[in-house]
Amino acid sequence: MFTLQRIETSTQEIKKSRFLAIAGPIGDEASAKAFLAVHSDPTANHNCWAWRIGQAYRFNDDGEPGGTAGKPILAAIDGQSLDRVAVVVTRWFGGVLLGSGGLMRAYGGTAALCLRAAEKVELAETLRATIACDLGDLALIKARLTARGIAIASESFTDTGAVLAVDLRKEMAEATLALVSDLSRGRAFLSMEN
Length: 194
What we know:
The protein is of the alpha+beta class. The model has no long low-confidence stretch (mean pLDDT 92). The strands form three sheets. The protein has a five-stranded antiparallel sheet with strand order 2-3-6-4-5, sandwiched between helices. The protein has a four-stranded antiparallel sheet with strand order 9-10-8-11. The chain folds into two domains: 2-122, Impact, N-terminal domain (Ribosomal Protein S5, domain 2, 2-Layer Sandwich); 126-193, 2-Layer Sandwich (Alpha-Beta Plaits). 33% of the residues lie in helices and 38% in strands. The two termini are 21 Å apart. Residues 131-187 form the UPF0029 domain. Belongs to the IMPACT family.
């Protein structure tokens, strides 16, 4: 699964109607609602949208015939294996009726055009881990974690050492545990949070 790196837009004109798609990454339902509120244009005839976060999804036809706008936008999201994404397709009516099939192709096609142009990043399941180590091992552990692309979320100090909070990809957890143990000669302690 992938999500979007940043907000992307695309426009196209179909039989005198102008369509604008705005797609962006979202983290939860509240951020999806905020994204839709910010990127909907109240001067347009229709602001149709869809979003997906894991198994949760919503879509809206905003006055277009049922199933002709929101579902095709959601299908464009799903068709590109995207998650944590919201898309708003705004339509300014140009005077020519498109029919149900034409609307589905216009909304779904505009959304797909926008999503294809967007820069994507892979979604990986991550775990938060805590590493407690001696001060003597701290520099080496931090250097090796950073070299492997492991993000250090926070660092705090105790009387005898340091505590690091790191974000690990789930599949790297066991290898990281072994690395920390080897680097500290078994003195460091690594615990995983669920």
